[in-house]
Amino acid sequence: MLVLRSGLTRALAARTLAPQVHSSFATGPRQYDGTFYEFRTYYFKPSKMNEFLENLKKNIHLRTAHSELVGSWSVEFGGKMNKVFHIWKYDNFAHRTEVQKALAKNKDWRQFLIPNLALIDEQEFEITYLVPWCKLEKPAKEGVYELVIFQMKPGGPALWGDAFRRALNAHVDLGYSKLVGVFHTEYGALNRVHVLWWNESADSRAAGRHQSHEDPRVVAAVRESVNYLVSQQNMLLLPTSFSPLK
After folding, report:
1. Which end of the chain is more exposed for a tag (fewer CB within 10 A), N or C?
2. How far apart are CA 198 and CA 192, in angstroms?
3. Do 235 and 77 touch, CB atoms closer than 8 A?
């Protein structure tokens, strides 16, 4: 019996002392404070996008009275046309529920929304967290934005997070582009990371990209991260007239 107890004690101690795998990319600390970002993508019928944006511009104050609009963009290049992308910030899920209830009771908002829904062809929503090592940055002047969507291999940030972070930092530290935010999807396609960049223009973005491809420091960092990559999509975004991020 003493031998059995001794063996059991050692086994439990070994389990207790087993090293834990952590990743600096994990979203845990951000999840604890509750704050998350909702990515909303709207696909419009041909020729209807501008009409919707003009109507929304006149009424956006009704919506932003309840939660923060981080940014609003139309998609210039990459994927389907007639597409608008929004990022909304919420304190937690209870906050989002309160916002939806308040909007449902707002007569002015309903008067705008109901007829304009007919202009929308399709909608897509995702819930994301800003990764702990990245603060949401606001560029000092107007420009263009690039949203890069990375679909990573299963295994989560503990598998690919550190290599991915090094690849991004190589571009930032060497001044090839300005990082606005890095978001990890919680609801939507899992193992998906959204990276939002800012550049002065589409031409400056192209020049920086070409230079980075010839920089051995960037190439080395990216080469490591692509081992975990399944697919990548790049979209050039133009801020709408009412977007807080210009």
Report:
1. N
2. 20
3. yes
For 55-61, the CB contacts below 8 A with 24+ separation are 55/112, 55/116, 56/112, 56/116, 56/242, 57/240, 57/241, 57/242, 58/112, 59/108, 59/109, 59/112, 60/242
CATH of 36-239, one of 3.40.50.2000, 3.40.50.720, 3.30.70.100, 1.10.3720.10: 3.30.70.100
Tens-place pLDDT, residues 110-139: 999 999 999 999 999 999 999 888 889 999
Distance between terminal CA atoms of the chain?
72
Least confident stretch, 4-8, 45-49, 75-79, 165-169: 4-8
What 3-state class would DSSP assign to 48?
coil
Query: How does residue 24 score in pLDDT terms, banded at 50, 70 and 90?
Result: very low
Which string of DSSP letters, residue by residue, matches 184-238?
Answer: EEEESSTTEEEEEEEES-HHHHHHHHHHHHT-HHHHHHHHHHGGGEEEEEEEEEE
Both tokens assigned to 96: 């989002």
Q: What is the pLDDT at residue 31?
A: 55
The values of phi and psi at residue 238, to 5°, are -110, 125
What whole-number distance in Å separates Cα of residue 151 and Cα of residue 154?
9
Phi, psi of 142 (to 5 degrees): -70, 155
For the ranges 6-10, 139-143, 231-235, the lowest mean pLDDT is seen at 6-10
